[in-house]
Every structure is written in C-alpha cells, then in structure tokens.
Amino acid sequence: MKISNAQRAEILIHALPYIKKYTGKVVVVKYGGNAMTSEVLKDSVAHDIVLLNLIGVKVVLVHGGGPEITDMLQKIGKQTEFVDGLRVTDKETVDVAQMVLAGKINKSLVNLLECSGGKAIGLSGIDGHMIKAKIKDTRLGYVGTVTSVNPKPIQDLLELDYIPVVSTIGCDDEGNVYNINADTAAAKIAAALDAESLITLTDIAGILRDKDDPDTLISHINVKETEQMIKDGVIVGGMIPKVQCCADAVKDGVKKVFIIDGRVPHSILIETLTDEGIGTMFEGDSK
Fold first, then answer.
1. Do 177 and 153 contact (CB within 8 A), yes or no?
2. What residues are labeled active site?
C-alpha cells in the first residue's frame, strides 16, 4: 500500500500525544510465542522497539525460550519430564537453559536490534545478581521463583540509551542457577523499574470471553475480576499464569499492563501509539 507524504504527516500528528506520554518512561516488553519464531514478526518487533527507543521511550525487552530449550535437549538426547505442566529441570537441563537463553537467544536478539538501527546490550538475571531466586518446588529441581530484583544493571543501560535485553535466568547467593518463567520475571522487573507499561506478546488476540471467537475480546479487565474469570473458565490453561502475572504487576504498581497479539505486525506500536490499541488491558481501581 502506497502512502502519500501528507498521510505520513497525519499519522505522525495522531501519534504525537502518545509519544509525549511515553517519552522518558520505561516500557517492559515480554517477548515470546509466535512472534519469536516468525522471521517477519521478529523484524516487526525489533523495528517497533527501536523506533520507541529513538523517540525517547526506555524499552526493556525480556525474553524466554522454552521451545528452543526443548529443541536443544532433544539434540543432546535428553528426555524432558513435566510435572503439572512444568519442566523438571535437573542440573544438566538448567545448564542447557542457561546456554540457550543467556547465549544463543539473547545474543541473537541483541544482534537483530542492532541490525534494525538500535543500540542493545544483553543481560541475564545472573548479571549483577539481578534476578535472585529460590527453588519453586523440589519436584521441579532448578525451576526458580523470584525472591528479589535488582534493577540497577538495567537502569544503568537505560541511562546510556541502550535497549537492555534480559534473559530469564536467576541465581541465589550459593551460586545455584535457576530457570525462571519469563512472564513472572517480566512482571517483577517491570515493578522494580516502576514501569509505565508492561506489554506481554502472546499467540492470541487477548483475553476472549469465548476462546473460539476473536470477536469476544475483553479490552479491559480489573484485576479483582481475574480470579472469578478463572473459576468461570473464561481464563484457562496457559493463560492462567500469564494473567496472574499481569494482575501481580498491576498490584505492584505498574501503571498499564497489556496482553496483546504478537502475531499482528507492529502490535507494539499499535498498542502504544494509537487510539484503538490492541489486546486486553489490566487495571486496578482508580485512585
């Protein structure tokens, strides 16, 4: 589609109030799902983040990489066991997770952002002991639950106008390394940074009242409603922990929290710089 210069100018004018709202503010993007595997969508996400960074938004990219960990475990012939839907992570598995998350995926994303015109530096939760963790469940081995977040390494990079790219590996004072759920880590990091916004990219349009009908998208949810929606079966399966993380982020002071469709090109820009937005916004009681 060809856009005239006048149309380009009109688009920028419409975006101006949102640019003013977000300039100088921290936005945490949790990156995963289909947007992480499609080359077209990866480029779209990278360009969105770089554009926001260039207009003065302090973007932090937090990523997981469960499918890539599974692929690597298969390549080395290691069987994966699950308990209650969570991967049992022994010492060998957490070593693989560290290698894949803090190595291959993290540095690939840094490279992608740099090639898209941005300045990015990769971190893991081990750097500066940024993400402290402890065992979540002894049955799961080195799967961690976050005990604290030290935001200083991220803040230092933001002050230098870099885009921090954070892999969700945690640690404890004894030197143990833990695999951390990326949604949980993103919510904790957003709270520690007093973020203006947390945006979680998923493979669905948002929270649907009928999971098979995209026209039943719920655009706003008060966090007080989430537990009842889980009981009613509106929020099910893998969306339950994502929604609980979003609710926790709101309760911990993150001002705007969204679940949006990462399959839509430039969904991050649509959410941040347009009237319509996209996906589901979580909110607390207005003060």
1. no
2. 30, 33, 66, 183, 242
CATH code, domain with 100: 3.40.1160.10
Output the pLDDT for position 117.
96
Q: Which residues are registered as beta bridge partners of 83?
A: 86
Total Cβ atoms within 10 A of residue 121: 18
Instruction: Give the global pTM.
Output: 0.92
Identify the pLDDT of residue 34: 60
The range of the structural domain enclosing residue 52 comes to 24-283
Bridge-partner residues for 281, per DSSP? 220, 258
Residue type, 241: P
Whether 207 contacts 218, CB under 8 Å: yes
220 in Cβ contact with 206 (< 8 Å): no
The structural domain count of the chain equals 1
Query: Among all chains, which residue has been given the structure tokens 């952002």?
Result: 113
Q: Which of 116, 125, 253, 131 is nearest to 198 (CA)?
A: 253
In a domain, 223, yes or no: yes
In angstroms, the Cα distances linking 148 to 141, 172, 193, 209, 259 are 19, 10, 12, 34, 24
* Residue stretches of the chain with pLDDT short of 50: 287
Q: List the one residue out of 126, 166, 157 whose CA is nearest residue 30.
A: 166
Q: Where are the alpha helices (DSSP H) in the chain?
A: 5-22, 39-54, 66-75, 91-98, 106-115, 152-159, 182-192, 226-231, 239-251, 267-273
For 247, other C-beta atoms within 10 Å of its C-beta total: 21
Residue 126, both tokens: 């081990």
| Amino acid found at 276 | E
| Residues 200 and 258: beta-carbon distance below 8 Å | yes
Q: What is the dihedral of CA 70, 191, 56, 51, to 10 degrees?
A: 30
pLDDT at position 284, please? 82
Given this model, what pLDDT does residue 286 score?
A: 59
